[in-house]
Design brief:
Layout (H helix, E strand, L loop, with lengths): L2 E6 L6 H14 L4 E4 L2 E3 L2 E2 L5 E2 L1 H9 L6 H4 L2 E3 L5 H7 L6 H12 L4 E5 L7 E3 L2 E2 H8 L3 E7 L3 H14 L4 E8 L7 H12 L3 E5 L7 H5 L6 H11 L3
Parallel strand pairs: 1-7, 1-10, 2-7, 3-6, 10-11, 11-12
Antiparallel strand pairs: 4-5, 8-9
Helix pairs in contact: 1-2, 1-10, 7-8
Length: about 240
């Protein structure tokens, strides 16, 4: 499998917005991109009465590879809570091989798979398997989405340390404005830049309409350079 694993410093810090923006940018650079949210907890009914996860719908709307909602979000759960709890409420168990098989099946439909994690880096999927294990199994380079708010430096550095302890490569990170009232933002980004040991792919401000195109406009590199960097990382 070729692509990128997108994780974050916490839940609700913009992983899906960043993944959708990357999908948009890389497609514009000529790549056939498959965004995948393999595990998604929390569904609502759309205008057609279909139950769908909001993040899955957002990624599905961003892609142009002709994927179905089920191919973008193969394992969707109804309750908006930790995946292992949501699965238990539905009488299910999230098994390692089933999750990996679903990701691999969708990834075959394009050149690069953008696999978005759920919550932060270590979220339980069952009693013996979590999202850090999943990232390790996939062995993809990692993009870290850092939610800019109080405490983000600690959260980002601990996450980077945890993923490197698994033998994973931190390819880059994105600073995403979660708290628009946060002070000393520049100093926070500088501290992270000095310590994370990976390039900053972009600083995303608080946007009134965070469409994939609007978010992608704040990436630090042109889409062609992002694509070249991502392609090169697959052979390292």
């Amino acid at each position: 499998m070729k692509g990128l694993f997108i994780t974050g410093t916490d839940t609700e810090i913009g992983k899906t917005c960043i993944t959708a923006a990357l999908t948009h940018a890389l497609q514009n650079a000529g790549a056939r991109v498959v965004p995948i949210k393999p595990l998604a907890a929390g569904q609502t009914q759309d205008e057609h009465g279909q139950w769908v996860n909001e993040d899955v719908a957002q990624l599905h709307a961003a892609q142009n590879a002709g994927l179905s909602l089920a191919q973008v979000g193969p394992l969707q759960l109804r309750e908006a809570c930790a995946p292992h709890i949501a699965a238990r409420l539905e009488g299910q168990t999230l098994e390692r091989e089933a999750v990996l098989s679903a990701i691999r099946a969708s990834s075959q439909l394009g050149e690069l798979a953008l696999v978005e994690g759920v919550g932060g880096f270590r979220v339980p999927l069952n009693e013996h398997y979590d999202t850090a294990d999943l990232a390790q199994d996939l062995a993809l380079p990692v993009l870290l989405v850092v939610g800019l708010r109080l405490g983000c430096i600690n959260h980002a550095l601990l996450t980077a340390e945890a993923l490197r302890a698994r033998g994973l490569r931190l390819l880059g990170w994105v600073a995403n404005t979660v708290d628009p009232a946060q002070t000393h933002v520049g100093d926070n980004i500088a501290a992270l830049h000095a310590r994370l040991g990976a390039p900053l792919w972009g600083h995303i401000p608080r946007l009134e309409a965070p469409t994939p195109a609007a978010v992608a406009a704040h990436f630090a590199m042109p889409a062609a350079d992002l694509l070249q960097q991502l392609r090169s990382a697959q052979t390292v």
